[in-house]
Amino acid sequence: MSIDVVLDGLFSGAAYALVALGLAVVFQPTRIMNFAQGEALVLGAAVSYQVVALWKLGWLVALVMVVATSIVLGLLMERLVILPVRLSGSRYAWIIATLAVALVFQSLFTLAYIDVPALRPAPMIGGQVSFLGNHIDWQELLTILAALAVMIAYDLFLRRSAYGQAVRAASHSADTAVLMGIPVQRVVMMSFVIGAVITALAGLFVAPVIFVAPASGLLFTIKGFTAAVIGGVGSPRGALLGGFLVGLLDTVVRSAISGTAGNFAVFAALAVILVVFPSGLFGKPMEAH
Amino acid sequence: MRRIALPHRSGSPASTLVRVRSAALSTLAAAVIVVLLLWPRITDYYSYNATYYNGIVASAAIAAILTVSLNLCMGYGGMLSMMQTALQLVGGYGVAIAVVKMGWSWLLGLAIAIVVGTLLSVLVLLVSLRATYLYFGMITLAADLIVVEVGRSADPLTGGVVGIAGITPTVGGTVIPKNQFYYLVLALLAGTYVVQRNFVRSGAGRAAMAVRESTDTASAMGIRPATTKLLVFGVAGGIGGLAGGLYALQMGFVNPDVGLLDNGLIFFVGLFLGGIGTLVGPLIGVGIIAVIVELIRGYARYTTLILGLVLLAAIMLIPAGIVGSWRSSRIGRDPTGPTDEDEAPGDVPATVPPVAAPAGVAALEGVGLMKFFGGVRAVDGIDVRIMPGTVHGIIGPNGSGKSTLVACLTRYHPLNAGEVRVFGRPAPRAPYAVAAAGVTRVFQAPHLFERVSVLDNVLTGMRMRERYTWAGAVVRTPGYRRQDRAERAEAMELLRFAGLGSRASWPASALSHGQKRLLEVVRAVATRPRALILDEPATGLTPTELAALARLCRALRDRGLAVVLIEHNVDFVMGLCDEITVIESGKVIERGVPEHVRRSPAVLEAYLGRPDLLEEAS
Amino acid sequence: MTHPRTTEPLLELRGVSAAYGGVRALQDVDIVLGEGEFVVLLGPNGAGKTTTLRTVSGLLQPTSGSIRLQGRTITRVPGWRRTGLGLGHVPEGRQIFPDHTVEENLRLGAFAHRRARERTQRTLAELLELFPVLGERRNQPAGTLSGGEAQMLAVARALMSEPRLLMLDEPSLGLAPIKTAELFGYVQRLHSERGLAVLLVEQEALTALRLADRGYVLERGRVVLAGSAQQLRDDPRVQAAYLGAAPTT
């Protein structure tokens, strides 16, 4: 196993880590496992593909557009998921709502990019960088650093800012948070937006390297979920660690055995962790909605 | 669920409505069945593309079979399952390998499909027994992904990514015509529906429903949660495997993509559109989707988008699905019309057998019970002896540890120290086994099964005594019928005794708070307990209902039961109990006859506080 | 102790009814509480005491009736806005945030005034001085506090928004008698020294009536008895609500 494989693993791990973080951000105050989370990644990839590859407007424009569109996506998702959950009393409402939202966005992306197999813009910075005698794509390095930066920023936000404190409070007990004067509904809406932006950023960064098809949202959700479970839902650091572990496991097994064995190893790890450590490796137990 | 003959005054508007409604629904169902049976002829007559239209209906019927399987898991079993497509895939592989690779009969292939589906779901359930609801769903998701990956990589067996093609049902070397296969699929759909119905309406189905609503409540009635889940999930797995086998025969091929979760979304849409947890919901939902998909055939690329939007709209507009919304609509609702208020409860029915107990042995006894939560000593060395044929009150202020004590006595909490004895024998470890040993508890907060009928609530309490197997219930053997009849008669007798006889067919949610509490006691009595623990049954009852409850407790005591009352309403306890134990901060501070307890200074202090300490502190 | 009544009461519930999922919990409840008054709500379990507090702080919408705070109708004001209007609610079972530190818990209490940093800082310093034990444990996760300390934290947290009315829901629950007395000592000081109005839900009736000016007794969601603390203390019906009526022999 060469260091190349490890770096590749860390790179794809960064993508999973960001999706896991997006899932955790939404899960914390709502107890909802958002099956549509991966669609935000596809959005990030699609917008950067549109802006960079088709419109040739450069990465800065793409970044702005990705953030703007993902804010809209987050607001839309919040309405489309929370409204049904409120209106129907069913315990399954959140699954149906998030699955339906995933379906709708998946088909919208497929319709918009019907003959595009992979949303792949050119890298932000081309070429490679030397690292311990090995070469790594600038794009890969950039993605790993971006993931770390987003993690740290969100961690600081949760711990230091008043609003971050409020998010943590609301995730512990919505009623008590209301007694503190915290607008819990607004916190929920904000979580959807932050989660969508973080996940879309992952799409922006990985699209030049990883295969992102218009319909691959659900797959990224599931891998991100695996990362979140391994790291323990609810802690950004756990998400980061879980993401890197999933990425490493995936690429290492892939290079050591075969292409399909990677997925198998990841999902088998997910099953084993769910069965053996119902509270994740690092985090607290995830209670049902 | 099941309608019972009600003493409807004939000619009343309510009964007319019921009759007209059921006539209309039967006509509709008969019409649908006739159309389905004549479908190949109709298409043959009207269309040049009969095979295509027959195929649509056959495929929809197969999808309906799989949706019934999903309905058993989620609707009746309360288990979030994301592996229905994996069941379909392994079922398909079962038939494909049997027919194409082994050259066996396709009928044997279908049998293998059922077995493989059952095995897969049993395996998944066994490894995930401890998982809670969301985690269980995620494990099924992981299982689904793994099955698909195995299918992709196990090339020699499954044909890898390409899959296996050329799966055809043959008889004596000739391929069965599609028309005949169509009727086979319909027959199997009908069979699946009957299995679903008979299973759900039997004791096994009621047990599944009880576990779905609350494992704790189910355990209190002696129902084993693990076994029950295993049964439901296994049956659903078999049905799923069958659907997969039929799918492979109908399409002629199977490949790993069949197992993708994306392909399973259609079953979710069908189930929720039709109505989850209803018998015909899955059929109606899948039927509607088939019609929608066919109508927008010209815009096939929008199919997913439209289905997604339909699903979103459905969950907002008709959260209970078509069947559920119909049931709660004005026409669809069962009349809960006038009943004879204040029915005078009669004598205790003979179905409550007198408890014969050896003299001097406590029905329920706790010795040196200790239970800590972190540093909090919730139960701190309590001794309690409850004799048969007495009403024993356990009182104490809020937070004194009463409910924790009950949970310790019934083994819902593992003890830190101490011993529980039931009629002199050490109590078993699991809550359901304690119930089987004759100790039944009624919870503090209402734990009724709100969505099912009053009668079914009581019948659920009789699960421990049912001797028939689930398979016997599905084919309705004479033994099953006999026991079912006897149970219903006994349940009606108990309900009449509690003054709920005329409300037997109501959904439990339609009862008043007091009636619900009484029903819970009746349900507990239906388990034929030797010791009955009631946790704060009097909260929120009206004086009339309190009197009814007191009468019930006395009647049970006279039959030799040990009745334990955990109460806050001291007035009620004082008038009813033979003996009282007072608890404060996890310790017994007083015990004895009511008069003694009422005069005790320690009890007064525990209830009314220590105003004298205020001056010292400030 | 009596306080001069202003024309407008601090809190006024008129004909308030409320329900949990169709089950009626409050029926036509009238409660009035003057500026700086100490009022206690008594009654057996399930009488609607907690529901009353939840309705006042907006966690539960009343099905009918009106709630006025300082002369302003707040019946339709969302719960999170009410905290900034002078309402402090210490919920049943304390409900501190166990993963937040003691100081973070306190700062959350001032979330409604989070922009007024100086004011928050001042209130925080004051409260840490008033409750020295919280000052000692300032940077500890609140989950590590003992029952009595946690209850003090819950009270202090509610005070962070500088309320005019403090509502306490069974603060003595699960506390040893001496801890209860200590806690009530603090509440009494806040009441008498700062003129803080208190609405106390308490099951230790005699203790509560020793502290309060007036009281209401609830049963099955209705006010069945109201009067001064002295009147209620002498009323045999209060004791009967808890210990049952003495047998008439």
Describe the structure.
The complex is a heterotrimer of chains A (289), B (618) and C (249). With 289 residues, chain A is mainly α. Chain A has helices spanning 3-30, 37-54, 59-87, 93-112, 138-160, 162-172, 174-179, 184-206, 217-231, 236-256, 259-276; strands at residues 128-131, 134-137. Chain A has a single domain, classed as ABC transporter involved in vitamin B12 uptake, BtuC (Orthogonal Bundle), CATH 1.10.3470. Chain A has eleven helices and two strands. Chain A has a two-stranded antiparallel sheet with strand order 1-2. In chain A, helix 5 crosses helix 6. Chain A starts with a helix and ends in a 13-residue tail after the last helix. In chain A, 58% of the residues are buried. By secondary structure, chain B is of the alpha/beta class. Among the domains of chain B are: 59-259, no CATH class; 361-438 and 529-610, 3-Layer(aba) Sandwich (Rossmann fold); 457-527, no CATH class. The radius of gyration of chain B is 29 Å and the shape is elongated. Chain C has helices spanning 49-56, 79-82, 102-109, 117-130, 132-136, 147-159, 177-194, 205-211, 229-234, 236-243, and strands at 11-20, 23-33, 38-42, 64-69, 72-73, 87-90, 165-169, 197-201, 214-219, 222-228. In chain C, helix 3 (102-109) runs parallel beside helix 6 (147-159). The radius of gyration of chain C is 18 Å and the shape is globular. Chains in contact: A-B, A-C, B-C. The A-C interface holds A 162, 165-166, 168-169, 172-173, 175-184 and C 57-59, 78-84, 89, 91, 95, 97-100, 104, 107-109, 111-112, 114, 157-158, 161.
